[in-house]
Amino acid sequence: MKNSKGEIVYIGKAASLRERVGSYFRSPGTHGARIEKLLSDATELKYQTTDSEIAAINLECELIKKYHPKYNVQLRDDKKYPFVKVTVQEEYPAISVTRKLKSNGSKYYGPYTSSKKLRETLKIMRIFFPLRSCRCIRKRASHRPCLNYDLKQCLGPCTGQVKKRKYQNLVNETCLFLEGAGEKLIRQLEKKMEKASLSLKFEEAMKLRDKIKSLNRIIEKEKSTPISEIMKVAHSLRGKRGVKESLVLLGNALGLSSPPRRIEAFDISNIMGKEAVGAMVVFEQGEPIKKDYRRFKIKLSSKIDDYGMMREIIRRHYGRVKQEGRRHPELILIDGGEQHLNLATGVLKELGLEKIPVIAIAKRLEEVFIPNKREPLIIPDSALYLIKRIRDEAHRFALAFHRQLRTKKMLS
Prior knowledge:
The chain is an alpha+beta fold. The chain is built from 12 helices and 10 strands. It has 4 domains: 1-78, 3-Layer(aba) Sandwich (GIY-YIG endonuclease), CATH 3.40.1440; 80-179, no CATH class; 180-224; 237-411, Nucleotidyltransferase, domain 5.
């Protein structure tokens, strides 16, 4: 907002400009002296669009620091939003909080809106992911480790007694958690727990079990982790209008004639081929339609064959859809890479449903693939966020069914 002299007096962000600006003119006299004075001074409104909510947060921060608007009371100092930094380029990576981003090979996660909450979260994380937090490392057997080592919040690579492979596994787990892939991390830990149990390493298995339980509690609360904090920011900014815009952007990126109103997503879950299940979730206009969710017990594959399992559930579901004459989705989303996509399109072609658009999202780099194109598709951040949200819900639903079957088998 600018005043009559052309000076910037206020900078803000909004998912819906109409809603945000309109809110200032509802119930006049109830906004407080600062807002009332702003409204009397402002004579001009200008806006700039961004590809994502996080980009909007960063842009707002930079502009406030640059122009120091009269009516902005936050972010006017020279501080920037904090990031989590993992120095993956080092032999024994460290984890820390930073406000400066450097091109030195480190991984950065963020930005986060509350430095205090972020530091509190890192304290909790160090219990499960005891990476070093010191600036430098001296690997000598005679070197006395710091207090974090005594508190079991650091493996103590400075003692020279930590195997590099063990430490690197911990780094990988930490990065997975910071990337928001907590469920994937838990699946990996469950495999390790089962392996330790089969090897009669019961103490190690019990430690892994306790770690899994604790991580599950953190993920389910969705209040302790910095990842969920950013997701809360994204959700609060998004709104229904934002979801519709994301669908339009997604449809344009995929070359569809209209935004995909109904999206059906598939995922599978198993451990070494056992208790293998599949799941389908349905989203309409960006919202889950839980009454249309479906679960599948894998029948044809008793071994580790992700492709065969995905082929089976696609064939079973859309074979029935065709037989019963049910409505088709505007888009099918597969949790997997290029090969998963090819087998799904092959099954649909066999069923005569090849006109239904299909895409796949690969977990490792969050890349989106479309048929007949080897390179991943570049799509806007907000559309990618929507795809990931649907994919994550399919994963959650499949994993819940898998755990239910495992628990039932163990109790029987």
